Amino acid sequence: MTSPAAEAPQGAGFRATVAALAAGQLVCWAALYYAFTSFVLPMQRAFGWSKPALMGAFTLGLAVWGGASYAVGAAIDRGRGRAVLTLGSALAGIGLLLWSFADSLALLYAAWALLGAAMAMTLYEPAFNVLTRRFPEHYRQGITTLTLVGGFASTLSFPAVAWLLDVLGWRGALQVAAAVLLLGVTPLHAWALRGTPTQLVRSAHEDGADDATLHEALRGSAFWLLVLTFTLYSFAAAALWAHIMPAFAARGMGEPAALAVVVWFGPAQVAGRFAYLLFGRWVGSRTLGLAVLAGLPLSLTIFALAQGTLALLLFALLFGLANGLVTIVRGSLVPEYFGRAHVGRISGAMNVVALLARAAAPLATAWLLLALPGYREVLLVLAGLGGIAVIAFALARPPR
Q1: How far apart are CA 300 and CA 334, in angstroms?
Q2: Gap between the Cα atoms of 66 and 15, Å rounded
Q3: Which residues contact 242 (CB under 8 A, 6 or more apart)?
């Protein structure tokens, strides 16, 4: 039995580990999540495939991401965080290479099945769980830093991919991204996560008393209320992301006017995370969670009902702040509510439903449009789902 003070990682220290993981998050989010939309039109021009057929590949990737989340979390709980993140970034590079050779929908879908598994192994939650286990006294600060840096992924992705497309074409652009992941991010993860994680060594009795197992978490109402909270939030937010430009068009706004509003999402998201990095130590996770989650239904209601430019800017700022901070809330709550011993399994099980809801949201919202008069009513329905998420979170008291 060793004391917490005596335990230190044999590999990189806290700051070096966070810096390496933050760089990996920036590249992985830019390449795996944000870049897809930039390749849709070039591939349509090359093959004549329909937009729904192309979007189906991304939907498959999101579904695989959700389905693989529990297995990834369980591997991290068994002390294999280094292997998960290192192999995940390598698999991402291989998937991008396979995509670059796609000449049929079957090959494109196979590539995105691999990329979905890579997303489950790299994007946010695995890095959060590894930090929580390696640095139990500082994981909140680490999570905040990762999300702060990751918030710039879209800022990096769109201009970088546009330049690569212009210079190398869509196949060459994918191959460059693959090389960055295979030759840059993969060895960086392997270097940063070498050595033995820092974690408190306790007896089985103490571990069972202090930290919930997945089975124990599943028997409590807090787990299921949090699942409901983040599933509804993920569904509403993903639906908005997928339909925001058509929603602006339905209001009679052209693309330049719409872009003048949505351009504020990124700065608001990063500003919220930076403010939390500076002042978050004085704000409890439940208090922050209630405020953040309330931002979604409020922003959607403003978007549905507002007419003026200032109201639309308020919508963008509120939604950006909420979307930026909800990741920090979700990453911090699991160890606070259930302990760190099984954080990978519990957060993985919690994420499965939320990620599958995110994957289904664009299509489900399209169906909802067939039943309702227009986007105004759809946005109010999504706001209602966000309101239920706030209520569920308020009822999710920490287990004893």
Answers
A1: 27
A2: 30
A3: 361, 362, 365
Q: Output phi, psi for 307, to 5 deg.
A: -120, -40
Alpha helix ranges (H) inside 135-203: 139-150, 153-180, 186-192
- The torsion angle over the Cα atoms of residues 56, 60, 66 and 72, rounded to 10 degrees, is -150
Instruction: Return the number of other C-beta atoms located less than 10 Å from residue 225's C-beta.
Output: 18
DSSP class of residue 168? H
- Give the confidence band of 206 by pLDDT, cuts at 50, 70, 90: very low
Q: Which domain holds residue 360?
A: 204-395
Contacts of 305 (CB under 8 A, 6+ apart): 376
Assess if residue 268 is contained within a domain.
yes
Query: Is residue 198 in some structural domain?
Result: no
pTM tops 0.85, yes or no: no
Which pairs from 51-55 meet CB under 8 Å and 24+ separation?
53/105, 54/108, 55/362
Q: Distance between CA atoms of 291 and 390, rounded to whole angstroms?
A: 9
The predicted-structure confidence for 24-47, as pLDDT tens digits, reads as follows 999 999 999 888 878 888 898 899
How many domains are contained in the chain?
A: 2
* d(C-alpha 115, C-alpha 29), whole Å: 12
CATH number of the domain at 187, please. 1.20.1250.20
How many beta carbons lie within 10 A of that of residue 10, not counting itself?
9
Residue 296 lies in a domain: yes
* The token pair that represents 319 in the structure block: 């939604």
311 belongs to a structural domain: yes
Domain boundary (163, 192, 221) is at 192
Of the candidates 147, 132, 286, 141, the residue with the CA atom closest to the CA atom of residue 198: 132
Cα 120 to the chain's mean position, in Å? Answer: 10
* pLDDT tens-digit series, residues 82-117: 999 999 999 999 999 999 999 999 999 999 999 999
The single residue listed with the structure tokens 């639309």 is 312
